[in-house]
Amino acid sequence: METGFTHAGLMEILQRTFKQLPDYRTGQNTRYAIGDAAAGAFGVFFTQSPSFLSYQRDMQRKNGQNNAQSLFGVEKIPSDNQIRNLLDPIGPEHLYAPFWEIYAQLKARGTLNKQRGHANNWLCAMDGVQYFTSKAIHCENCNETHKDGTVRYYHAAITPVLVAPDSPVVISLEPEFITPQDGSEKQDCEQNAIKRWIERNASHFAPHTVTILADDLHSHQPLCELLLSNHFNFILVCKPDSHKALYEEIALLDKIAGVSQVKVRRWNGRFHEKWLYRYVNQVPLRGGEHALQVNWCELTITHESEGTQIYHNSFVTNHLINDATVKSIVASGRARWKTENECNNVLKNHGYHLAHNFGHGQQHLSSVLVTLNLLAFLCHTVLDLTSFLYQRLRRELGTRQTFFGDIRTLTRYSYFPNWQALLDHMAKGLGIGLSSSP
Ligand SMILES: [Zn+2]
User: Fold this and answer.
1) How far is the CA of 155 from the centre of ligand 1 (A)?
2) Near ion ligand 1, which residues have CB within 5 Å?
3) If we measure between CA atoms, which residue out of 226, 223, 249 comes closest to residue 237?
4) Which of 119, 200, 303, 379 has its CA 20 to 30 A from that of 57?
């Protein structure tokens, strides 16, 4: 079942990038390599252990070997303070290459074949996440909001992920940071960040193989036109309050029976649900001249016997909607919620110890650390997708807390010459037979 992605293979991809990070130091003090700082911070995120490096420094002192070196290729472990100083001047874009290399390999190996949505497209969900906020701590790349005479500093990013209906897997792609842009007086925003990401990355995908998913904030004409001109498809949430002209048109069509319907009855294990799909093709996205024509659909789910509404959402898309496609278009549009649940939640709530370990930095540190954390998240996803032993261990240990708790403890007390040795040790302890089939 192993399709060839190993921890060592992933580290090789990452190390190529870490070793090429720019070094802006001018003095003689080059005792620690920049690549070691990046690999060390990556190790903290990958093990989800804030104390990982300090444990490994201890181990090195006492035993002459350590897991930061064996598992992550850190030749000489810098202090947290040195890591902060070494990584702070480096723009996060220097860490983007591994996202695409891993994506390309997953694609080439066929691992992504099951991760598809409507029209056999890959679904790329674009959502913003605010990962830092403070009234006191800030850097030159913080965004600011002013309210009642107080300033609030924050960092946010777009974290695009590939999602698929009925799959818990989310594949992180290169992020885009919402940060004050050179030569612009105005604050940056989510819309501009998505625009930059699309323009920079469209060439990574074959035309019309990717459908972009985003929320209501982004279902406006400039973004839709940008997506179409870059050969992306889209399914975007589209609410009545922000799309008055579109919904007036739908109301008019409804009066002359111009809105199509599909009804489905479903048993959810406890009671019957009524699923009502409504759709119409070729309606104007906005009022005024030169409005883009889009296709619109909505899904309303109600409790059949009680009549209460359980779910409602509506989307605009460039995919043609008919009785046969409306269900898969809506299912694809709904897959976006995984971003919040899987990826951004992990960034915000699980093992995210940035400020605790490394501080905020003066320039790019906070976005560099987020990028390393996204890479760690991606590597775990890839191992889960492609390594049978990793899958077995994760399933056996139940929660992610247990898995990472065990990794944390094992790497503190024992030396492992490589990741495979660590997994084998865990499997042996748990009595998982390595030869058992899935
Ligand atoms: Zn900042």
Assistant:
1) 6
2) 138-139, 142
3) 223
4) 379
Are 277 and 297 in contact by the 8 Å Cβ rule? The answer is yes
DSSP conformation class of 170:
-
Q: Concatenated DSSP letters for 10-66? A: HHHHHHHHHHT------SS---S-HHHHHHHHHHHHHHT-TTHHHHHHHHHHHHS--
C-alpha of residue 289 to centroid of ligand 1, in Å? 42
Q: At what angle do helices 365-386 and 80-87 cross, to 10 degrees?
A: 100
Distances (CA, A) of 152 to 46, 70, 138, 169, 353: 30, 42, 9, 34, 21
User: 139 C-alpha vs ligand 1 centroid, how far in Å?
Assistant: 4
β-pairing verdict for 233-237 and 260-267: unpaired
Q: Which amino acid is at 399?
A: T
Output the CA 96–ligand 1 centroid distance in Å.
Answer: 20
Per the structure block, which two tokens stand in for 377?
């998240």
State how far the Cα of 6 lies from the Cα of 101, in Å rounded to an integer: 14
Residue type present at position 260: S
358 alpha carbon – ligand 1 mean position (Å): 13
Least confident of 18-27, 35-44, 225-234, 341-350: 341-350
The pLDDT tens digits for 378-412 are 999 999 998 889 999 999 998 888 999 999 999 99
